[in-house]
Amino acid sequence: xxxxxxxxxxxxxxxxxxxxxxxxxxxxxxxxxxxxxxxxxxxxxxxxxxxxxxxxxxxxxxxxxxxxxxxxxxxxxxxxxxxxxxxxxxxxxxxxxxxxxxxxxxxxxxx
Amino acid sequence: xxxxxxxxxxxxxxxxxxxxxxxxxxxxxxxxxxxxxxxxxxxxxxxxxxxxxxxxxxxxxxxxxxxxxxxxxxxxxxxxxxxxxxxxxxxxxxxxxxxxxxxxxxxxxxxxxxx
Lengths: 111, 115
Description:
Radius of gyration of chain A: 13 Å
Largest interface: A-B, 25 and 25 residues
Radius of gyration of chain B: 13 Å
Distance between the termini of chain A: 37 Å
Strand content of chain A: over 45%
Oligomer: heterodimer
Helix content of chain B: under 10%
C-alpha cells in the first residue's frame, strides 16, 4: 500500500461548482498536512497547511483533516477556470524532514 | 524578490551521458530539497540539505545520482550514465526553516528527457 493515495483524475467541473479533492494515507504518525497547487510547467505552490483534525478555511479553499479515518480533503467553492491545475496533497510526520506527496489530481474548471 | 530558479529548463540527452542540473534557492534559505516528478507519479524525494549538516541522501535511487550544495547556496544534481527511466521533471525547493513549519518554495523544474 502506498503511503499516500490520491485519485489522479482528471476531474472536470463547470465554473462555479464546488470541488472536492481527497487523499488517504496509511501512517498514523503523520501530523502535518498540506495541499499544493501546480500549474502546467510550473513548480508546486503551497495552498493550505494544517496540523490538526478539523477544518481550515482560506477564502474559497477549505482543508479538512480526519485523522481517525486517515483522510484529508480540499474543497474549492465557486470554482474558477484559473483553478485549473494539478492539486497535490503532502503529509509528513514530526520527525522526518521530508514530505510524502500524493500523485496529484488534475482539475479542469470549464467556463 | 527572486524565487527558486533552476537551469536548464529542458535537457535532452542520450542514454549513457552525464547531466548536471542546477538549483539557485531563495537567498537565506537554509534548507534545500531535490525531488523527481514522473508522469502520473507524486513527487519523489531525492535528497535534502540543511545548513552545514550532512545531507539526507536516503531518496537517491542509485549511486548514479549525486548532489552537492556549495557554500550553503547553489546546488547541483548530477546524474551519471543516464538511463531512459531517468526521464522526468526534477524539482528543487528551498525553505527558510527545517522541519514541519518550513514552507517549501519550488522552482519551475528541469525537464529531462533521455533518449
